[in-house]
Amino acid sequence: MLRKVVRSSKFRHVFGQAAKADQCYDDIRISQMTWDSNFCSVNPKFVAMIVDASGGGAFMVLPLSKTGRIDMSYPTVCGHTGPVLDIEFCPHNDNIIASGSEDCSVMIWEIPDGGLITSLTDPVVKLEGHSKRVGILSWHPTAHNVLMSAGCDNVVILWNVACGEAVVRLDTVHTDLIYSACWNRDGSRILTSCKDKKLRVLDPRKGTVIVEKEKPHEGSRPIRAVFVSDGKILSTGFSRMSERQVALWDPKNFGEPLTLQELDTSSGVLLPFFDPDTGVVYLCGKGDSSIRYFEVTDEAPYVHYLSMYSSKESQKGMGYMPKRGLEVNKCEIARFYKLHERKCEPIVMTVPRKEVQSLRKEVKDLKAAVEELTKRVSELESKH
């Protein structure tokens, strides 16, 4: 019986391509803060980036079409009195963005359709309830006006943005700094990772812990986790020897991971972005110059390495475009907005058409034939 050598997958040939220079956003002073958030948020209308600012915190919001060099005097959103640590666009209204800051507050801003004409200093809503800096924000995926924030006071708060009130306050669950917090696809569960080396699945309505996993990764460096398909959990972390790892867990049986793979020995935290439509997870390391991507399936080893996009410049942060902002007629399945020190560069992930794949095969065969001919010529030359 013939053994299957290569696993069949629609996404085996996915490749990443950086945008041309005139399609990038240049001369932007990206924030130098050493905080492990994305520093960038994007939707089909705007791209927002946290920038350096004197005397407080600021972020810049640009219409997607405003590529090229950005003037130093371009207006910013600058209402915070401390550095901005995280920003996130609302999934239900492309003009609404939330920001969390070192000044312990969360602010909600409304961006006009054409972009900013003057700097914004007054938010639509100011949410106060944290006693330390707010570093994580996440909008509810299905309910309007529900925002989750997590601060360095080890507290998770669910806000009703419409009336500016805290609806649920989880202040006894976490004993240490919260590294990540996210919703599942329908917003019925929250997943957090914490410095106390625990993953927790929470019920947002009751404010209780449904299940928790101690030491998903042995190392002491930060852990990130996201929900993937069928309620499973994908986590990134470090081994005891500081090797970066990716693991897949089934919350119904949290004892052992479905798979645990070691990747490399870099020190940057791996930020996972999961696409539920394709089952592909993208791992972007802060300070890395590459994006690895894997396919999550039901068959062992469950997390299958696909490929890696590499470049020369390291990334300061990463924005991930929602599916409705992609050019699907060009076979685009994901688009990232990579932050450099002084610019933002779009990176497009594409599934090649069959014609392109066959052309690539022809090129590969031609290369092999040329190599074979070169080898034979050199052998003949050596004989004479």
UniProtKB/TrEMBL annotation:
Gene Ontology terms: biological process: actin filament organization; cell migration
One GO cellular component term: phagocytic vesicle membrane
Record has Acetylation as a keyword: yes
Mapped WD repeat ranges: 77-119, 127-169
Subunit comment: Binds actin.
Designated name of the protein: Coronin
Keyword set, alphabetical order: Acetylation, Actin-binding, Coiled coil, Cytoplasm, Cytoplasmic vesicle, Cytoskeleton, Membrane, Phosphoprotein, Repeat, Ubl conjugation, WD repeat
Protein's organism: Seriola lalandi dorsalis
Family note: Belongs to the WD repeat coronin family.
SUPFAM superfamilies linked: WD40 repeat-like
Coiled-coil region: 356-383
